[in-house]
Specification:
With 217 residues, the protein is mostly helical. The chain contains 10 helices and no strands. The protein is flat. The N and C termini lie far apart (48 Å). The model has no long low-confidence stretch (mean pLDDT 90).
């Protein structure tokens, strides 16, 4: 598995560099959206709620500005690093689903890891890359919860992850029914501690989303 992962990392990096060379190392900037993240980051840095953008990506963009001319490439490196982590998350997810089919796991992960349309997102100053990587992490936690014992700490992890996802792209509210069904499913055989953690997690996520709706009208 480690050799397969290293091979996937190598080819993913190769695809990224190949696309960057084709683009003459010009990053993908979508006007006017890209600049609104930096503008929003300045607003959030002042402790003011920006009514245009949720905080996670704008804060990342704002922090990158301290590196001057390297700011955009800092964001790209962060996105590609998280993307590489998502390759491992997807790889481990598929290993849980297909424990005896090593080739299937490798090829299926490769369709994600070396897909130019997916890798290119890391070169784009938009939320797509981090959003996709976090979706893969969410999938891994769900599959792990189904295949293995799900503890209270796992509930805490998935709750925090989902809050971050909501504050990157509010569209992720569409995932709420899936998570609620998942929590009901795992709580059938869980301990009381896990059940209580699930209830707290639902209240936490619901409170964050309602607070978001109130703040953004």
């Amino acid at each position: 598995p480690n050799r397969q992962l290293n091979l996937l990392y190598f080819f993913a990096t190769f695809v990224l560099l190949f696309i960057a060379i084709l683009a003459r190392f010009h990053l993908s900037i979508c006007e006017p959206d890209t600049m609104t993240y930096f503008d929003s980051g300045e607003i959030w840095a002042k402790g003011i709620i920006d009514k245009v953008r949720t905080p996670v990506y704008p804060i990342i963009c704002h922090l990158s500005t301290y590196l001057g001319p390297f700011s955009l490439w800092t964001i790209v490196l962060l996105q590609f690093f998280v993307f590489c982590l998502s390759i491992k998350w997807l790889f481990n997810t598929l290993r849980l689903i297909f424990p005896d089919k090593q080739l299937t796991v490798f090829v299926s992960t490769a369709l994600y890891a070396v897909n130019p349309a997916i890798v290119q997102n890391a070169l784009s100053i938009m939320t797509e890359s981090l959003s996709l990587s976090m979706t893969v992490l969410l999938l891994f936690i769900i599959v792990k919860g189904i295949k293995q014992k799900f503890a209270a700490k796992d509930v805490a992890g998935i709750s925090v992850l989902y809050v971050v996802m909501l504050l990157i792209r509010p569209f992720f509210i569409c995932f709420a029914p899936i998570l609620v069904l998942f929590l009901f499913w795992i709580n059938r055989t869980s301990t009381w501690r896990t059940i209580v953690a699930s209830a707290i997690g639902v209240v936490l996520v619901g409170g964050v989303f309602l607070g978001y709706c109130y703040a953004y009208k």
